[in-house]
């Protein structure tokens, strides 16, 4: 039933709109009610799993901008289903959790609005089939996450960090959009389902490198790959439910999702595979290195998330069947345990008032349920059997040992990364609960978190244990169809049962090494803290974030400088700049349209016209240079009446009559105010006048050339001829110009009358205010 | 037929633009008047010039005998003339009033008048 796609989107967006009202009446209990939206979407989507597993896809399509080949088309296949289930399933628990975490917050309604809007955007992103639609939802996630990260906007630092996330991901998205348009141009389609079948066409086209780089610009910024990694740890400025949801389960995976989605088109090209593998490994190593020195539990988790994003990208780059399988399993496992760990950390922060690992110890007696959930999640993250995380880690090693030659480096990277990640997992998920309690050092007296705050963690962490022991349902209905979508192949049946993996072979040995190394890192954690501040302070000035800061400040400096330079506040400068620009563009246009190739006809004139034009030119010059009002007014009058004569001579009696009338009125008007005007005088210096004179002459000359070129072009007179032919039979008028004005284009004339009326009203107001001002003064 | 008029249009634009770049506020009005004359002639000329052939239907005919002056640019210019007059009149009133209010005729002195 394809309508469930639009239905699940609608239910989440509608609930988002209702959230502020519900919170007003129900307070923070509203979370329980609001969670129905994601959960009902989850159930509707789960019901489709059987069909997806059979190899079909759900398609919903309505026309949108058909002229631009853009339709509102949604499509649910294995990969989309997997992502959609994570978004809605984890999202539901986050909604409940936020009610407890944000207990009593005055802006809770607004928070839920942002959170659910984000959820809808994310769901829309993963089920969109049209590239333009993907971009729209992609940007919606950026904007809503900006609002969520900057939720505590009273702090300057939070605003800075939120803006950073928005700018980095937003600029990346611009690159991605350009990549999308290139793809659309090459393949002639914006439908993902069609594009993924046209890999050969794309890889053969000359723009392939540009497409890959532009698309990765979007994916790498969103999924925080090196060198755009820095915004992700900074995004921890948002409330913890946001970190748990956006920065573990969903938004940061949008980049991974996009890369996985386009993988069938790009796989097989060395550019794609090596770029992903190398940047993924770099991200993993950097994240693990920086993670070692963190003291804030939330930061530790942020860096491990960064590391996981690196692993996923790397696996996608390796691209073998095992690697993709490992990626999908790792993605699910990570979403489960990382959301849990963030929520547990939020609970600890909420109950103790600190997130400093050097202070947190021995909380297991006081917070037993959180301790259980955190412990289970940390073990899954460590990759110990029988947790789901173990399967993911085993598969990574299985993919790794299949590599050969120089590519074995990725296996080493994976080993080092996993080892540190286990250390960090224990540090964040187990460390706070064990050891000798020192409750006196904590800012608040701790006790167990409320139901809303431990329900999600416990369900998700137990789920990680259960599907580790019985992986059949998940592998059959989620992993296998997703694998098929990413590899662009038929759905294969997987056997990921635990007992098949626990065999004495090389991957298991590597797992053993990981466990030992992980414990070693965990036990020596205090050594890293001891030097943390020094190490971080040493590398900070050279990091990508420092570079971001410099670019940011340089942009602001440039913007201010060019404003100072262009916006002088003097009319002269504006006019000069406009004229200069126009002269430049006109010259360019004239040159590119064949230069000075026009014919002139100096011979065919009446003496009358020649004399008239010469007199008018002199008059125009006198009008500019004249020193007394009488001279200038006479000169202007000569120009105006001259124009009227030209109209009359060249067969436009109506224009001539109007011009005469208007000219007379203008002169009268001038005479009327001339006594109240200041004397004519020269203010600018000689140099300025010379410069302006040259520029004005250039402008006038160009207009002449333009006109000479224009009259050499044969115009199509169809409209004029038609109007002339219709004039008498249709409108019963013998003067064609008049008929055009009052019949065919009567609305224009109406507008003209309005303009004159408004001008008259304006003049009346000005004159009246002048009189009043005078009265006051006297 | 148009070359001479084209030169005239160029002169009107040049003198008008030069006036617009002056600091004396009255010159602004003169500049606007000159440029609008130039613009009207420009549009009028682009339609092609034909001496003494207005687009009038003779008493016993149903259409003007070809060739006739293009009526469409003429209609547009007619509108433009009237609107140009409205603009000039308004500008004149504004400049007069502004001169009284600020007490200066240098446009650069108008920068700091927000009080």
Automatic annotation (TrEMBL), chain A:
<dbReference type="Pfam" id="PF00662">
    <property type="entry name" value="Proton_antipo_N"/>
</dbReference>
<feature type="transmembrane region" description="Helical">
    <location>
        <begin position="111"/>
        <end position="127"/>
    </location>
</feature>
<feature type="domain" description="MrpA C-terminal/MbhE">
    <location>
        <begin position="689"/>
        <end position="768"/>
    </location>
</feature>
<feature type="transmembrane region" description="Helical">
    <location>
        <begin position="133"/>
        <end position="151"/>
    </location>
</feature>
<keyword id="KW-0812">Transmembrane</keyword>
<feature type="domain" description="NADH:quinone oxidoreductase/Mrp antiporter transmembrane">
    <location>
        <begin position="128"/>
        <end position="413"/>
    </location>
</feature>
<feature type="transmembrane region" description="Helical">
    <location>
        <begin position="602"/>
        <end position="622"/>
    </location>
</feature>
<feature type="transmembrane region" description="Helical">
    <location>
        <begin position="326"/>
        <end position="348"/>
    </location>
</feature>
<dbReference type="InterPro" id="IPR042106">
    <property type="entry name" value="Nuo/plastoQ_OxRdtase_6_NuoJ"/>
</dbReference>
<feature type="transmembrane region" description="Helical">
    <location>
        <begin position="300"/>
        <end position="320"/>
    </location>
</feature>
<feature type="domain" description="NADH-Ubiquinone oxidoreductase (complex I) chain 5 N-terminal">
    <location>
        <begin position="67"/>
        <end position="112"/>
    </location>
</feature>
<dbReference type="InterPro" id="IPR046806">
    <property type="entry name" value="MrpA_C/MbhE"/>
</dbReference>
<feature type="transmembrane region" description="Helical">
    <location>
        <begin position="451"/>
        <end position="474"/>
    </location>
</feature>
<feature type="transmembrane region" description="Helical">
    <location>
        <begin position="629"/>
        <end position="650"/>
    </location>
</feature>
<dbReference type="InterPro" id="IPR001516">
    <property type="entry name" value="Proton_antipo_N"/>
</dbReference>
<feature type="domain" description="MrpA C-terminal/MbhD">
    <location>
        <begin position="614"/>
        <end position="678"/>
    </location>
</feature>
<feature type="transmembrane region" description="Helical">
    <location>
        <begin position="207"/>
        <end position="232"/>
    </location>
</feature>
<feature type="transmembrane region" description="Helical">
    <location>
        <begin position="274"/>
        <end position="293"/>
    </location>
</feature>
<keyword id="KW-0406">Ion transport</keyword>
<feature type="transmembrane region" description="Helical">
    <location>
        <begin position="696"/>
        <end position="715"/>
    </location>
</feature>
<dbReference type="InterPro" id="IPR050616">
    <property type="entry name" value="CPA3_Na-H_Antiporter_A"/>
</dbReference>
<feature type="transmembrane region" description="Helical">
    <location>
        <begin position="79"/>
        <end position="99"/>
    </location>
</feature>
UniProtKB/TrEMBL annotation, chain B:
<feature type="transmembrane region" description="Helical">
    <location>
        <begin position="28"/>
        <end position="52"/>
    </location>
</feature>
<feature type="transmembrane region" description="Helical">
    <location>
        <begin position="6"/>
        <end position="21"/>
    </location>
</feature>
<dbReference type="Pfam" id="PF00420">
    <property type="entry name" value="Oxidored_q2"/>
</dbReference>
<protein>
    <submittedName>
        <fullName>NADH-quinone oxidoreductase subunit K</fullName>
        <ecNumber>1.6.5.9</ecNumber>
    </submittedName>
</protein>
<comment type="similarity">
    <text>Belongs to the CPA3 antiporters (TC 2.A.63) subunit C family.</text>
</comment>
<dbReference type="InterPro" id="IPR050601">
    <property type="entry name" value="CPA3_antiporter_subunitC"/>
</dbReference>
<feature type="transmembrane region" description="Helical">
    <location>
        <begin position="72"/>
        <end position="95"/>
    </location>
</feature>
<keyword id="KW-1133">Transmembrane helix</keyword>
<dbReference type="InterPro" id="IPR039428">
    <property type="entry name" value="NUOK/Mnh_C1-like"/>
</dbReference>
<keyword id="KW-0472">Membrane</keyword>
<keyword id="KW-0560">Oxidoreductase</keyword>
<keyword id="KW-0812">Transmembrane</keyword>
<dbReference type="GO" id="GO:0050136">
    <property type="term" value="F:NADH dehydrogenase (quinone) (non-electrogenic) activity"/>
</dbReference>
<keyword id="KW-1003">Cell membrane</keyword>
